[in-house]
Amino acid sequence: MDNKELIKKLITEHSLTLDEYEYLIDNRDPELARELAERAVSVRRGIYGNAVFTRGLIEISNICKNNCIYCGIRAGNGNCDRYRLTPEEIIECADEGYSLGFRTFVLQGGEDGYFTDAVICDIIKRLKAKHPDCAITLSLGERSFESYKRLYDAGADRYLLRHETADREHYEKLHPRDMSFDNRMECLRSLKRIGYQVGCGFMVGSPYQTSATLAKDLKFIEEFKPEMCGIGPFVPHKDTPFGNKPQGTVELTCFLLSVIRLIHPPVLLPSTTALGTIHPLGRELGIQAGANVVMPNLSPVSVRKKYELYDNKICTGEESAQCRGCLEQRMKSIGYELIIDRGDFKGKRIY
Ligand code: SAM
């Protein structure tokens, strides 16, 4: 098969074999990327129009028990200035976000033992009582089935847990021995079973990634059918063992955003801060490749610099209102509208 036939198959069947995904990645060129992006944008337009959804990101803690080798807030990074927001501070961030037009709040953080089920359930209930028209997304790492269920029953709507890579050997090169590929995948299955809208995802250009491991990521997305999928470039952090590894590229990230849109048309696909970090127009390019979500920062400015997953992260100095305004302008400049909406998944939910 050549590229033209593969595009046709992708559009009609939303599925390629592992070899075909690998071939597409290895044989990509600017013309193929352009064609895929055009198709991806047209498919997305058919479902979501020219709306770009926003999610207000609240980085609740950079304390983490894990030692993921790529991550700036890994437990082993002694140079990381640790912080944790109080429940009151988290609610204040959301209140401010609400007045700015956010209808989804993403509570993200390291795996910080302070945030027990009781503490998070209390925050969720208070947020839902104040803002019943908002969705709550959690991104707090791996927990037990029972814990995920309690948080869901308390009112959480969505959960983001990037699978990081669908290749076991690759996973083991990115994580220490006490972290398990099987557990990560099991967590994703549990979240779906419970009823969350679930997001998986991976870094583009992470160390030891190959077109064969990426083909497995695409196959996983094709089969798992997540409601959301977070992909962004790997960006090295100087205080991690991967500090000298090369960063991922805008080109490959955008190419994969287009492919993922065509694999799973209704998926909610963010154009990430990491993409905006490695290119001044990265988030615009992501949207033009088929993404439809942006996640401006609502964390208090006093802690933003401390949630440093990678070097030179953008948007660490501005107030929340500035961040939202800036993104609104950026989206307008490319013909898109940032809208006030929960931004729910518009596809058929598959459990
Ligand atoms: N602890 C939660 C978890 O593990 O899902 C959420 C926080 S974690 C820091 C969020 C995501 O940041 C990870 O899933 C990872 O893909 C991304 N990330 C971490 N280090 C990164 C880096 N150096 N470059 C780009 N993305 C990174």
Oligomer: single chain
What is the count of distinct domains?
1
Reported by name, the CATH topology is TIM Barrel
The distinct ligands, each listed once, are:
S-adenosylmethionine
How far is the N terminus from the C terminus? Answer: 33 Å
Q: What is Rg?
A: 19 Å
The SSE string, one letter per element, is HHHEEHEHEHEHHEHEHHHEHHE
What is the CATH top level name? Alpha Beta
Task: Summarize the main sheet.
Answer: 6 strands, parallel
CATH superfamily: Aldolase class I
Helix content: 40-55%
CATH architecture: Alpha-Beta Barrel
Describe the structure in your own words.
With 351 residues, the chain is α/β, with parallel strands linked by helices. It has a single domain, classed as Alpha-Beta Barrel (TIM Barrel). 44% of the residues lie in helices and 12% in strands. The protein is built from 14 helices and 9 strands. The chain has helices at 3-13, 18-26, 30-48, 87-99, 117-130, 145-153, 168-174, 181-194, 211-224, 250-263, 273-278, 282-289, 301-304, 320-333, and strands spanning 51-54, 56-61, 104-109, 135-139, 158-160, 197-204, 228-233, 293-294, 337-339. The strands form 2 sheets. The chain has a 6-stranded parallel β-sheet. A 3-stranded parallel β-sheet has the order 8-1-9. Helix 4 links the parallel strand 2 (56-61) and strand 3. Helix 2 (18-26) crosses helix 9 and helix 3 (30-48) packs across helix 10. The longest helix is centred in the N-terminal third of the chain and has 19 residues, at 30-48. It is globular, with a radius of gyration of 19 Å. The mean pLDDT is 97. It binds S-adenosylmethionine. S-adenosylmethionine is lined by residues 70-71, 73, 108, 110-111, 139-141, 161-162, 164, 203, 232, 234-235, 237, 274, 309-310. Residues 70-71, 73, 108, 110-111, 139-141, 161-162, 164, 203, 232, 234-235, 237, 274, 309-310 line the site of S-adenosylmethionine.
